[in-house]
């Protein structure tokens, strides 16, 4: 018996029926992002064949070497969001300033989108999962051109929705609103994202911790003590394993599905952290929080940090609520 699985479009329409007064703009925005994701996945999954591996020769505002696929993904997202009618403008890891879609229709759109077009791009050439991360905010100033200060620099708890796409053995889009987190796997037979993981919940405990051990001696003593606790756990049959892909999307996706904790602390080289608040930490913190997990910068909830600039970075610890709470115990003990 063929099991009826809702496509992303059918799911968004089903959700719309629950809210007859909804304009459908947010649903259309999600469908636009889904379309861009399919185009990105098509290119990522044939990167070794298409001449699209390697760097562009440019560096972005973070001083990172921009990969050709970073740019391809960035352009796909801008194209569908500009063409659609639900987004007034975007901010991207790969663009120094925001991009306002300055036409009458888009200028009156309710939403702005911030995204990391391709996360984990250092892994592209070695065929390790990468992803796209996005956060959607309702504009404060509208109609008219969007404004960075009021429309983009909003704290993460004001996200209307957030999501990511992981380009792995399969492409999966995980999307959260306050009502819940749902996962859609791309079915290549019909070219549609299909609801494969309804109502995703982050287990309150897990058995993996995810961190770049290579920076151990650059971490604070509280972080070092927590890592020792995870490693000694094995003796007390707590049994933590270390898993680190080096693509935040992949490490957080595993954490959402199986439980665990992902840590990217400040280091001596990056005293404010490496990961970007607006288009990496906030969207993923929103998703994990809706799913019952926690996300902190060590002192405060990620979602309550007040952003001062588009590309600011933050230390980040997110995952199973009980594991993040245990880590916070090490921070408070260290004063
Ligand atoms: P991006 O590819 O978008 O620049 O992000 C890379 C980030 C993130 O995906 C990952 O968690 C982190 O860089 C890995 O950093 P290290 O190589 O320093 O561990
Ligand atoms: Mn980058
Ligand atoms: Mn990234
Ligand atoms: Mn990126």
UniProtKB/TrEMBL annotation:
It comes from the Bacteria. This is Fructose-1,6-bisphosphatase class 1. Its cofactor is Mg(2+). GO terms for cellular component: cytosol. It is an enzyme of class 3 (hydrolase). Mg(2+) 2 binds at residues 116, 119, 280. Mg(2+) 1 binds at residues 93, 116, 118. Its EC number is 3.1.3.11. Residues 203-328 form the Fructose-1-6-bisphosphatase class 1 C-terminal domain. Binds 2 magnesium ions per subunit. Keywords: Carbohydrate metabolism, Cytoplasm, Hydrolase, Magnesium, Metal-binding. The gene is fbp. The lineage of its organism: Bacteria, Pseudomonadati, Bacteroidota, Chitinophagia, Chitinophagales. Pathway: Carbohydrate biosynthesis. It catalyses: beta-D-fructose 1,6-bisphosphate + H2O = beta-D-fructose 6-phosphate + phosphate. InterPro entries: FBPase_C_dom, FBPase_class-1, FBPase_N, FBPtase. Belongs to the FBPase class 1 family. SUPFAM superfamilies: Carbohydrate phosphatase (SSF56655). Pfam families: FBPase, FBPase_C. Residues 7-198 form the Fructose-1-6-bisphosphatase class I N-terminal domain. One of its GO terms (biological process) is gluconeogenesis. It is found in: Cytoplasm. It comes from Ilyomonas limi. Substrate binds at residues 119-122, 212, 244, 274. GO terms for molecular function: fructose 1,6-bisphosphate 1-phosphatase activity; magnesium ion binding. Homotetramer.
């Amino acid at each position: 018996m063929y099991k009826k699985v809702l496509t992303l479009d059918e799911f968004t329409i089903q959700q719309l029926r629950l809210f007859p007064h909804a304009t459908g703009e947010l649903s259309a925005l999600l469908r636009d992002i889904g379309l861009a994701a399919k185009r990105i996945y098509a290119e990522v999954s044939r990167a070794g064949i298409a001449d699209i591996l390697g760097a562009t020769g440019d560096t972005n505002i973070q001083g990172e070497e921009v990969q050709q696929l970073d740019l391809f993904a960035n352009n796909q997202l801008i194209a569908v969001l500009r063409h659609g009618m639900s987004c007034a403008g975007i901010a991207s890891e790969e663009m120094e300033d925001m991009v306002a879609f300055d036409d009458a229709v888009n200028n009156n759109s309710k939403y702005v989108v911030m995204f990391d077009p391709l996360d984990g791009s250092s892994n592209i050439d070695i065929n390790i999962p990468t992803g796209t991360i996005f956060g959607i905010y309702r504009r404060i100033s509208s109609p008219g051109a969007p404004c960075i200060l009021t429309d983009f620099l909003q704290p993460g708890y004001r996200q209307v929705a957030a999501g990511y796409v992981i380009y792995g053995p399969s492409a999966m889009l995980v999307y959260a609103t306050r009502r819940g987190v749902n996962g859609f796997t791309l079915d290549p037979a019909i070219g549609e994202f299909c609801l494969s993981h309804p109502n995703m919940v982050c287990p309150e405990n897990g058995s993996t911790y995810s961190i770049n051990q290579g920076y151990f001696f650059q971490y604070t003593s509280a972080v070092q003590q927590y890592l020792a606790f995870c490693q000694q756990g094995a003796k007390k049959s707590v049994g933590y394993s270390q898993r680190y892909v080096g693509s935040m999307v992949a490490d957080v996706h595993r954490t959402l599905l199986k439980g665990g904790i992902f840590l990217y602390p400040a280091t001596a080289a990056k005293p404010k952290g490496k990961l970007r608040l607006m288009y990496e930490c906030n969207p993923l913190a929103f998703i994990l929080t809706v799913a019952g997990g926690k996300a902190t910068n060590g002192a405060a909830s990620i979602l309550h940090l007040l952003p001062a600039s588009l590309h600011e970075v933050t230390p980040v610890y997110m995952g199973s609520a009980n594991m993040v709470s245990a880590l916070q115990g090490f921070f408070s003990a260290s004063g």
